[in-house]
Amino acid sequence: MKLAEFYEEGVGTDKNLVKAYKYFDLSGNAGAEGKHRVAKEMTQEQIDEAIRQSQAWQEEHNVQVGGGLIRRAD
Q1: Minimal CA–CA distance to 20: which of 34, 4, 41, 36?
Q2: What would the pLDDT profile of 22-74 be if each residue is shown by its tens digit?
Q3: Helix (H) or strand (E) holding 6
Q4: Could you give phi then psi for residue 62, rounded to 5 degrees?
C-alpha cells in the first residue's frame, strides 16, 4: 500500500489520485480505507479509470483482487 500512499501524497512522484486508487484497489480489503479517502477528491470518471487500470493489471497478471466499486453521490 505504500506505493498507493506515495501517489496519493506525491512522495517522490507527482500526486496522482488515479494511480493511488488503482494501487489501493490492488491491495484488496487492506486498501478499502485508502480508496474511500482518495475517492472524496476524485471525479467519477477518474474512479472509473482507476478501476479500469486495476482490472487491466489483474487480467495481465492473471490474478483477481480488489473490487468494491465506489460511486459518487453527486
Answers
A1: 4
A2: 999 999 889 999 999 999 999 999 999 999 999 999 999 988 885 555 555 55
A3: helix 2-9
A4: 55, 50
- Cell numbers that stand for 61 in this block: 497478471
Q: What is the pLDDT of residue 72?
A: 54
> Which cell numbers hold the place of 46?
477518474
What pLDDT was estimated at residue 5? 97
pLDDT at 15 over 90: yes
Dihedral, CA of residue 25, residue 18, residue 62 and residue 70, to nearest 10:
40
Kindly report the number of other CB atoms within 10 A of residue 46's CB atom. Answer: 17
Question: Read out DSSP for 18-58?
Answer: HHHHHHHHHTGGGGHHHHHHHHTTS-HHHHHHHHHHHHHHH
CA 27 – CA 67 distance, rounded (Å): 10
